[in-house]
Every structure is written in structure tokens, then in C-alpha cells.
Amino acid sequence: MTTTYAVLSEGLQKRYGEVHALRGLDLAVPEGTVCGVLGPNGAGKTTAVRVLTTLVSPDSGSALVAGRDVVRDPAGVRRRIAVTGQYASVDGDLTGAENLRLFARLLRAPRSRADELLERFGLTEAAGRPARTYSGGMRRRLDLAASLLVRPSVLFLDEPTTGLDPHSRGEIWDVVRGLASQGTTVLLTTQYLEEADRLADEVVLVDGGRAAHRGTPAELKALIGSYAQVVVAHASFLQEAAAVLDRLTGSAPVLDAGHRTVGAVTTDPTLTLPRIVREVDAAGIPLVDASLRPPTLDEVFLRLTGRAPRPAPAPEVAA
């Protein structure tokens, strides 16, 4: 079966003076899927979104979005996409209903579409209130609703849950899942590794302006094996426990004195949890807990890029 791609880029390059933001970025996002684009700060994620949404032109390379060339037919691309940035762009002085009806008028969408989306996003009861009184999650839902007035083929979400509390984040995740199930292609940039793990059919790890790694969350986790971790009774035993894990796994352990943990990646399929416990016990180290599990995407990120993902910002509060 031939795969049809909603987003397809080859060799995208973009410089800003001395900064080489994109260095040959290749992307291939099948229709009706969620693609999570991850990367450390400065990796080129935002520049990639700006190029793919026709906000800036690439210096070289090519890109098709919804079958339209971003350089030769930017207007055609714009008619088929929607973009939701990191922060809600709604007008706080207008009510939720007024915001959507204004956008509907600008986009030549029927007013009934605005009312339909208010109901779909659970905003009907709050529709008559000024948007400035909405919680962070409600503003993000209103922003997403505005993006869907024209039923886009491809939706670009640039860190859509930045600053939201866990409950509001879960609401946005439900919306994204619903959109994908209805055939909308979603390209999601995020710094929440759990978000990509929960939502993405495929993850592309961008580093240095290139797609350094790609695959399903499970495939990326398999690249680095399993994660062995022990919790010792006293922080004074951390170095001894680290020496044991270093010997068993062959990789440099990570120590956390505050939580009294030592962890290390292992690609040895014969290493078992009972063996880890026996070796730590034989070294005379008092053990509180031990585990051997698949790595999280956070650990994959750190292992593959050498840098930790950016810490999550503080949640928003209602205005």
C-alpha cells in the first residue's frame, strides 16, 4: 500500500546570520497520524514549523504540506492548515462566543461552525464570559477551536500545553486524540516527553537542525535498552552502588543524592533484576528498592542528545 504524506520535507536549510537553524531537515508524516517533534532548545523545531507553515522561506531544500509546495504555493498551504502556537491568541476582552464568531467571519466560515465548536470543546456554558476569565486550559481549548473553524488537513501544534496543570493538559490530549481519530494530521512540537509518549504515532528527535532519530516511542526506547535503578538506604552508599551498576551495565550511572537513587542504561538482555539485587547485596549495600524497566522518553532524550529536556514551566492559573 502506498503511503500518502501530509508533510514531506527534504534537505531543509535555514540560516539566521551565523546561526544555522536547519541543516538538512527531512520529515515524512503520513496522513491521519500524530508526529511528535522533540529536541533540545535551539535544535531547530520552531524554525521547522515556521518553514512548514510558510511564515519563513527555506534557504534550500523542499517541503510539501497537504500536497502543496511551501515555496511555490504558500497560499495553497495556508488554505489547508491551521497553527496553534505556544500561547493562546484569543482576545481576552471578547467572550468565547465572540472570539470564535470573529474568527469565523474572517475565515468566511459559517457562524454555525463557531457554535458547533463551542459545544464540542465543552465551552458552551462559558461562551458568554470574557475570555480573560477563563482558566489556562479553557483558553487553550478556545484557541484550538479557532484553529479548527476551517477543518484543516494538517494541524501544527507548537507546545500546546505549555504551563497548563495536569488536568488541563489531559483535556488537550483528549482533543488531539479526537482530531487524529477523525483523520486530521497533527504535527506536535513539545518539551513534555510524556506528551509525545501518550499522543505520537511517530517521534522525530531533532538535534542540530537535523532529524537525528525517528521511530515510534517504543522503537526509540528500544534503541537504548533497559534502565536499571536502585534506591539505597543512605546517600553514603551511592558511589558503591554506582560502581556495581557500572560493572553490570557497562554504562555510566546517573546518581540522584536527594532521592538516593542510582540508575544506568543496559543493552544486556541477560541482565535480570534478581542478579542486580544479589550483586548489590553482596557488596554490603543496604537496599530500599530496585527496578529493571523500559526507559522513559526522558531517558531516551538524555541518552541520545546528551542533554536533559527543558523543565516544565509552572502551570497557569485562572485569570
Q: Can you tell me about this structure?
A:
There is one protein chain. The protein is of the alpha/beta class and 319 residues long. Among the domains are: 5-80 and 152-221, Rossmann fold; 226-293, Alpha-Beta Plaits (2-Layer Sandwich). 34% of the residues lie in helices and 27% in strands. It has helices at residues 45-52, 74-78, 96-106, 111-120, 136-147, 166-181, 193-199, 217-223, 238-249, 273-282, 297-305; strands at residues 5-16, 19-30, 34-38, 60-65, 68-69, 81-84, 154-158, 185-189, 202-207, 210-215, 226-232, 254-256, 261-266, 287-293. The strands form three sheets. Strands 6-7-8-3-9-10 form a six-stranded mixed sheet, with helices on both faces. A hairpin with a 2-residue loop joins strand 9 and strand 10 (210-215). Residues 311-319 have low confidence and may be disordered.
Give the class-level CATH name of the domain at 5-80 and 152-221: Alpha Beta
Superfamily at the CATH H level of the domain at 5-80 and 152-221?
Answer: P-loop containing nucleotide triphosphate hydrolases
End-to-end distance, in Å? 50 Å
Task: Please estimate the helix content.
Answer: 25-40%
**Biggest sheet, strands in spatial order?**
6-7-8-3-9-10
Secondary-structure-derived class: alpha/beta
Runs in which pLDDT lies below 50 for 5 or more consecutive residues are 311-319
* Shape verdict: globular
CATH domain topology of the domain at 5-80 and 152-221: Rossmann fold
Biggest sheet statistics: 6 strands, mixed
**Strand elements, count:** 14
Proper CATH architecture of the domain at 5-80 and 152-221:
3-Layer(aba) Sandwich
Radius of gyration: 23 Å
